[in-house]
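All the exercises in this workshop are built on plain-text protein records. Sequence and backbone structure share a record, each on its own labelled line. The question running through the whole workshop is how a given chain folds. The record below serves as our worked example for the rest of this section.
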Amino acid sequence: MKPQKMKAYASFDEWKRDQSASHQKLVNALSRIVKESAPELTPTVKWGQGCWTLGDVPKVYMHAEPDHVQFGFFAGSTLNDPEALLVGSGKHVRHVKVFTTKGIPRAALVALLKQVLQGP
């Protein structure tokens, strides 16, 4: 089996347009949360995924799965997560699975984003 080549996008908006209609709604809602609570973060694309950086450092990402969007944190394993929303088993990265716009845990995501801005 041939390895799949990572799709390249010129911008976050181009990446977003390539997502399904239902995922675009989730991406828009999650993007608003980032823009409102962490305006210092810059939307971009890294490794074929929607991402936000602080300077050149990737901090937050979105990855589309068939039935949900992962809203992830590159240093997620270091974050205080009192609601136990973060999942993942990697050394650093953790994410929240978001299935619907009504299911977005807004307050918890804002708290996690504030931690990301404060740094380690």
User: Anything to note?
Assistant: The domain at 12-118 is CATH 3.90.1150.200 (Aspartate Aminotransferase, domain 1). The CA atoms of residues 21 and 33 lie 19 Å apart. The helical segments are 12-17, 21-37, 106-118.
